[in-house]
Amino acid sequence: MTHFLFDGPDTAPTTILLAHGAGASMDSPSMTATAKALAAAGLQVARFEFHYMAARRYGHRKPPPRAETVNPEYIKATADLRAKGVTGPLIIGGKSMGGRVASMVADEMFAKGEISGLVCLGYPFHPPAKPEQLRTKHLADLKTPTLIFQGTRDEFGTRDEVATYDLS
pTM of the full predicted structure? Predict the structure, then answer.
């Protein structure tokens, strides 16, 4: 069973499931601040960690795996969240790599009626200093309602770079 950190009311009309980025845990200051802000807006937020990050809590330093290899973990976390009794609309997403993984599983889950949307917080459009290695191919075909928040100085895709992407 996936371990979750919850913020916000159990009675919230919508729940957001968030995964962390490649290098920071689910209880990092950034993830905590985001969860608290969303909870203050009346949403329930559930945060979880991929296995490699959870293992770090026990002294097992594993590097982040390729994003697509943790897709099954995201799908399992969604099922585990529902098994805990979370009902109603569910939006999936995450910070950086967590949002990327969510974007890779979103359409399959959306088509089955398992989720209502996707939110990416600082999407990793490309590796740092490698803007030619785009990670955007699947984004152009997304059917899931999606919101991507991107900082103006994000090294994974600046405002100027992102403005040139053809995601339609």
Answer: 0.95
